[in-house]
Amino acid sequence: VDLDTARQELEEFIPHVRNISDSSIRKMAGRDLVRFRQFKKQGIAVKFGRFSQKENNQIRKNIEEFLLITGIDSAEKLLFTSRYPEDKETINRLKAEHLFCEKLSEGIPRPWRLIYYRARKMFDPNNYKGRYSKEEKEKLKKYHALHGNDWKKISELMSRSNLSVAMKYSEIKSAVNYGPWSKEETQKLMHAVEEVIRKRTEKEDANSLSSSGKSQRDILIDRETLYQKLPWTEIEAKVGTRYWRQCKQKWTTILTNKITKGQQLYRGTKGLQAKINLIKRLYEMKVEDANEVNWEELSNAVGDVPRAYVQAKFYKLKVSCVPSWQKKTFSEIIDYLFEEKLPELEEKL
Q: Does domain 134-173 have CATH number 1.10.10?
């Protein structure tokens, strides 16, 4: 398939394909197009976002089967071949002979690259080493000063995964404040969010408005734009004293207060009713995985609030009420809340 045809066909499955480089389109045409066509025939949509438990299990199954077929003795050798220079040639030959790309992505309706990154994250023994010590944080700063954003090099020096060192560095690169937000910090956050939303909206409207009109007007945007897919690392840089996750959580709180006009939705009898509604609605959905929940639709179970607020409340509910919740599946957590916690909350109400 020629480049333009491939881009055009891929656009049906990946809306942002116009922003992808030519070399990436060529790779996707080889690795993904045939699979995407097959999923389309089966009525299955291509997915993005967080991987479900079912997809993670499918990746494990695909990796285990490939190791059995090839005799490669570990997932680490398969996915991090450069760590084993003496076996590199043999492993790469086996991967080519037994069609590693096709095998890894079997049964998963996502772009191959995302499946590969997910597999690397799941099977990297350097990815689960707990908190960074003070000494490790100092080492990380020193290595970054020497090697810049070469996370592969830094990860090898630190015996941590690429993703882990990159995320940790973004957290410690500046003096991050962990206490209550000051008035100045809150203002900086609000200005930063306004700036990125304004830029985005003005870019979209560039063809329909004159530049003088754009600079004077107050932009009108739908609510989703206020809390979905905001560039949090960019906002973190503009705020300067907070980590991106703190910025996201604070922005959700600000939005919730504005949307609800400061009402205490989760206190007293209102709070009990909100928890009851949330458990009942989640139980009625009968979903197997948190990624299948439409949190937007669920938000009115608590009140007129952003989806992140509902997700945060559900997280608190499971952590405080469900024993050993980390070892339970999503559906087991919901069943426990419905059968054990709900009657208690209703009696209390």
A: yes
